[in-house]
Amino acid sequence: MSVREKVARRASKAGLTLPDALVERLEAYFQLLRKWNRRVSLTSLPVEDAGDEAIDRLLVEPLLAARFLPGPAAKAIDIGSGGGSPAIPLKLAAPGISMRMVESKTRKAAFLREVVRALSLSDTVVDALRFEELLVRPALHETADVITMRAVKVEGRTLAGLQFFLKPGGLLLLFGTRSGLADAATPQLIPVATHPLLKQWGSQLEVLRKASL
Questions:
Q1: Is the pTM of this model over 0.90?
Q2: What is the pLDDT of residues 103-135, one digit of tens each?
Q3: Could you tell me if 175 and 150 are in contact, meaning their C-beta atoms sit under 8 angstroms apart?
Q4: Cβ atoms of residues 64 and 42 within 8 Å
Q5: How far is 168 from 156, CA to CA, in rounded Å?
Q6: What are the structural domains, with CATH classification, of the chain?
Q7: CA 5/CA 202 separation, integer angstroms
Q8: Which phi-psi region, left, alpha or beta, contains residue 136 (left: φ > 0; alpha: ψ -120 to 50)?
C-alpha cells in the first residue's frame, strides 16, 4: 500500500474525508520527513515503514485538531517544530493561516525550510531560535491567534513566556498523551478543555485560552 493510500485510510478510520489534493501534499511532506530522518533525527516514530502510529500521530492528529483553529486566516506560532508536526499538516489543512515555526536546532530548521520551499507554502516562516529569544521582539507580542506545541510536560514558566505572543482570547493548543496542565496553568492562560484525539495512542489535545483584558 502506498503512503498516499495509507494516509487516506488512516484519516478515514479517524472519521475524516480528505480531498485528494490534500492527501497528495500530506504524502509529499511525509516523504520529505522520511528522507531527512535518515540523517537528521527528526522523530522517533516509525516513519521509514510508514507505520500506522507515525501517520496517525504526525498527520492525522493535527488534521483532527484543525477544527480548533480560531479562523481560516488565523495567525499561528508553532513552538519546537522539529519534524514539522503539527505545524505543517495544520498549514496544509488550512492554507489561509499564517504559520511561524520556531525551532532552535539548526538542522531541523533547515528541514523545515526545505518543506516550505518544496511545498511552496505561503505566509510561512521558520525561526532557528529558542522561543525565549523571540520574546525580546515587542513586534511579536500579542500577534498570535493560536500557538501550537507538542509536549509531554509543560512548566508554568514556559506557559508564562508563551502567553506574551497570544492576543487576548487567543488559544494555546498542546498535543500530548497525558494531562498535566492544570497544575501548570497561569493567571493569563486558563485551561478550557481536553479533547481526545486518537484513542489507540492515548493522544489528546489540551486547550488553554489567554485571559481577555
A1: yes
A2: 999 999 999 999 999 999 999 999 999 999 999
A3: yes
A4: no
A5: 18
A6: 3-210 (3.40.50.150)
A7: 24
A8: alpha
